[in-house]
Specification:
single chain; TIM Barrel; 38% strand; globular; ApnL_C; ApnL_M; ApnL_N
């Protein structure tokens, strides 16, 4: 593997290129046994059809494929393979898959699975992803399992629950005169709005969440499912777009101020931050967020470490405080306040959230016992009367959307995101940026003008709301729900960070946190990374650039292809316009930047560039 790949991804492992399948106007990319980017006439019809097997913590098995045969004809394609998943204590699930596509717009994906022994799973079967670009809020026809047909719409604002249940088929318009029907057979399917988790899709999946999980697939009992796509109609196939043209940048009007940039500090990282104080000063965050969780053993030592750092680096400070909610709330929170005073920690704000809310409550599940949020916030206000109070979720927008906090008691609301909850391939992680404007719009629809913070949001998952733990990733792989992700240390992470800030900038956030200072989520490298230990990772430049723009007016900006290049533009008080560009792809991109100091800019893979 080349050194360049290591610099890009933070790992020497590179994803294999997908196999492009073609049948007339129908195309699909075959990768790891599944289909991605299913298009008709160049328009994305489905984002994916995937056969997924998940473990009891919602982790995804990576099945080993054998007997793979791909036959690409002149106007048809066929794929067949065998695969197996090996679970705990040697349990095993084998399955056989066939995929057929034809020039008349027909695509069939069929899987028969046979457990060799009893096999425990949270989900086993197809997931079908409809894209959100051009489809959010659009008209669809839903066929239910009883044969009834309903004309309805896909959600525009993010639906906290399942928009459609008991699904047999869903049909949408691809372009005028052309429709796509996706039909699911072999089990009961329902749809969830995956934008909750910052996935850029609506997901139709097998087995309703209201049924118990995990569940057992009995040994020797065959399980067969089929997904059929039918694209039909008389609409004209659009001419192929010219791919060689430079990507154009268009600037609009000035909008809200760009947010303060925060850095989260964990109890074991304070002293390292102090030892690297010049680097922290060079990074320049406006806010330090201190994570504090008494249920994990955090106490006075952690608060004293934070106090030393806060004294050495003058910035606003927020305590991210987990509340156990066991016993008297006033006693618990006044106890925290007393230790904060004893430690000499000067706080600008505190955000509180119940410990039980770190775990998600899926549809159909009983809500865990928890005091009313109104009581928790009232106790926090009594304990910390002189600083700003925030609430929301220390997990993801999903949980905030399902358990909506009483914002009238709060000075700000907050949540995080993570792009590897469901998938961890490069394309899915970058596509997750498409969902962020829907998340901010949905939050604003719920909470109105209440000051709004996001983060810490990183590629890696800091805690798993959907299972017992995050997935260990010591080998630096691309793993869903992993506690660390190698791409955070590569140029990929730097591009994702600029792209993230660009997507949320119109929302007028008060604060945005996209990293810690050290550790797996940090801007400083560990040993064995593309840069030397304790040297700045590529993400350092991204975060530093965002820190420098805090308080500038956001300038509406877009590119002619935001799946490949995103831009963040801002205007200073003196009227100077600054623009950051991020190449979201592994290919070289040419960008037309007319109006700045030069006309064309050639961007290398995952490059970030400041203009102005």
């Amino acid at each position: 593997m080349t050194a360049d790949a290591f610099l890009l991804y933070g790992t020497r492992a590179v994803e294999a290129d997908p196999v492009r399948l073609r049948a007339g106007a129908l195309t699909a990319d075959f990768a790891n046994g599944n289909l991605r980017t299913i298009r008709h006439g160049g328009i994305e019809v489905l984002r994916a059809i995937a056969y997924i097997v998940r473990d009891r913590d919602w982790g995804t098995y990576e099945p080993a494929l054998t007997d793979l045969v791909i036959d690409q004809g002149s106007d048809t394609f066929t794929v067949s393979y065998s695969a197996s998943c090996v679970g705990p204590e040697g349990s095993r699930l084998d399955f056989r898959a066939t995929i057929e596509g034809s020039a008349d717009g027909q695509l069939v994906f069929d899987v028969s699975a046979l457990p060799e022994s009893d096999f425990e799973t949270n989900r086993c079967g197809f997931c079908i992803l409809h894209p959100i670009a051009g489809l959010a809020g659009s008209q669809v026809t839903v066929e239910h399992t009883d044969g009834s047909m309903v004309e309805t719409k896909l959600p525009d604002l993010i639906d906290p629950w399942q928009p459609f249940k008991d699904l047999r088929a869903i049909t949408h318009e691809v372009r005028p005169g052309v429709t796509a029907e996706c039909r699911m057979e072999g089990d009961v399917f329902e749809m969830e709005d995956q934008r909750n988790w910052s996935d850029a899709s609506y997901k139709t999946y097998v087995r309703p969440l209201a049924l118990p999980w995990p569940y057992i697939l009995p040994a020797g009992e065959m399980l067969r499912q089929t997904v059929s796509l039918r694209v039909s109609g008389d609409g004209k196939v659009p001419a192929a777009a010219a791919t060689a043209e430079p990507i154009r940048v268009e600037l609009g009007e000035a909008g809200p101020a760009l947010p303060d940039i925060g850095v989260i500090i964990y109890p074991d990282e304070g002293e390292t931050a102090l030892a690297n104080l010049p680097t922290l000063s060079a990074l320049g965050p406006q806010q330090l967020m201190f994570h504090y969780d008494p249920t994990r053993g955090h106490g006075l030592d952690a608060l004293q470490s934070y106090a030393r750092l806060a004294a050495a680096y003058p910035a606003k400070t927020t305590l991210e405080c987990v509340v156990s909610c066991v016993g008297d709330l006033d006693a618990e929170l006044s106890g925290v306040a007393g230790m904060v005073r004893q430690a000499g920690l000067k706080l600008s704000a505190i955000a509180v959230s119940p410990s039980v809310d770190r775990q998600s409550t899926p549809p159909g599940s009983a809500w865990p016992e928890c005091p009313p949020l109104e009581d928790i916030y009232s106790a926090a206000r009594r304990a910390f009367p002189d600083i700003r109070l925030g609430g929301g979720m220390f997990s993801y927008f999903t949980e905030l959307n399902r358990k909506r906090v009483p914002a009238g008691q709060l000075d700000f609301v907050t949540h995080c995101t993570c792009p590897i909850v469901h998938a961890a391939d490069d394309l899915s992680v970058m596509q997750s940026l498409e969902a962020l404007p829907f998340i901010t719009a949905s939050t604003r629809a719920i909470f109105g003008p209440t000051p709004y913070r996001i983060g810490p949001s990183t590629i890696a998952m800091r805690q798993n709301p959907y299972g017992g733990a995050t997935k260990a990733n010591l080998q630096g792989q691309r793993i869903a729900m992993a506690d660390r992700d190698p791409r955070h240390a590569g140029q990929f992470g730097a591009a994702w960070t600029i792209g993230y800030a660009a997507r949320v900038a119109p929302a007028g956030l008060e604060m945005l946190t996209l990293c810690s200072f050290t550790g797996p989520f940090g801007v400083l490298a560990a040993s064995g990374e593309p840069v030397g230990e304790d040297e700045p990772r590529p993400i350092f430049q991204s975060v530093q650039g965002l820190c420098q723009l805090a308080g500038f007016r956001h300038v509406a900006a877009r590119t002619s292809d935001e799946t490949r290049v995103l831009t963040l533009a801002a205007r200073s008080a003196s009227g100077k316009t600054v623009m950051w560009l991020a190449n979201l792809t592994a290919s070289e991109m040419t960008v037309d930047i007319s109006g700045f100091e030069r006309r064309h800019l050639v961007m290398t893979p995952y490059a970030i560039t400041r203009i102005g």
